[in-house]
Amino acid sequence: MYADDLKIYNICSNYEVLTKDIATIYNWSLKWLLPINADKCNILYLGSDNPKQTYYINGTELTKCVSLSDMGVIVTSTLTWSEHITKVVKKANKILYLLGKTFAKADVNTVTKLYKTYVRPILEYANCVWVPTLQRDINLLESVQRRATRIPYGQVRPSYPDRLNLMKLPSLADRRVRGDMLTTFQAFTNISSPIRHLFPVNIDGRTRGHRFKLEKDNFRTSIRQTFVTNRVFTEWNALPPEVVESASVPRFKVNYDTFRNRR
């Protein structure tokens, strides 16, 4: 619950359960003089077999939608991320355009710092939640970094891989893998982590490698395959104990980067 935003999510076989929950929230809002504007409320249905029941607040039918923004991330009814990626790329390109105009004569070090401070965070916000699965989306995200690395070189410039090396920048795809590893590490090391239960440990696999090896999840859909606990499975289980059992987040980053650079 937020100052001006309220969301209800429920998995139920009987839509009456969610109907009662909505009524309970509405009555609560009246009691505390925090009225809910039904005209601004939306329903987002997830799942291909969703019955898509109609819901009401005080007699007003709630508007059905196929996508909505939740904490800055666009969630769609198909749980695909092309719409969100298009939005963040557009936003990042606007910032990059201003930086290019303002710092057209800046050196490599300055442009790198500007990009890492003002542009890259836009492309990576909450990326443990969303991940590009289509090659066109992967290329679209990487195109922003390609454009950023051109700024200090003008018309005559090295190739993109060489520019990354000169500016000490990994590809965004590699950054996403690193972010997933960091999310997994934090889930295991933070006792109060709200996502710890999403990472089941494979008890049978403890005799080899590190002691936090993940259990394989049996998935039947491509959407489930790209869920964070499934997409980190191979990379996380292959990490050596000295990386997984790092004493802190900063130490994990150093150990992971060292391990990746050796590969």
Based on the model shown, name its key terms.
single chain, 263 residues, mainly alpha, 3 domains, two-stranded parallel sheet, two-stranded antiparallel sheet, globular
3D structure, described in words:
With about 260 residues, this protein is mainly alpha-helical. It folds into three domains: about 15-65, no CATH class; about 80-170, no CATH class; about 175-260, no CATH class. A hairpin with a 2-residue loop joins strand 5 (about 65-70) and strand 6. Strands 1-4 form a two-stranded parallel ribbon. A two-stranded antiparallel ribbon has the order 2-3. Strands 5-6 form a two-stranded antiparallel sheet. The protein has helices at about 15-30, 80-100, 110-125, 135-150, 160-165, 170-190, 220-225, 230, 235, 240-245, 250-260, and strands at about 40-45, 55, 60, 65, 65-70, 75. This is RNA-directed DNA polymerase from mobile element jockey.
What's the helical proportion of residues? Answer: 40-55%
What structural class do helix, strand and pairing data support?
A: mainly alpha
Strand tally: 6
Q: Rg, please?
A: 22 Å
Following the backbone from N to C, one meets helices and strands in this order, namely HEEEEEEHHHHHHHHHH
Q: How many domains in all?
A: 3
Average pLDDT for all residues: 90
End-to-end span in angstroms? 45 Å
User: Strand portion, in percent?
Assistant: 5-15%
Structure in a nutshell:
The protein is mainly alpha-helical. The chain has helices at residues 15-31, 82-102, 108-124, 135-150, 160-167, 172-189, 222-225, 228-231, 233-237, 241-244, 249-262; strands at residues 42-44, 56-57, 60-61, 63-65, 67-70, 73-76.
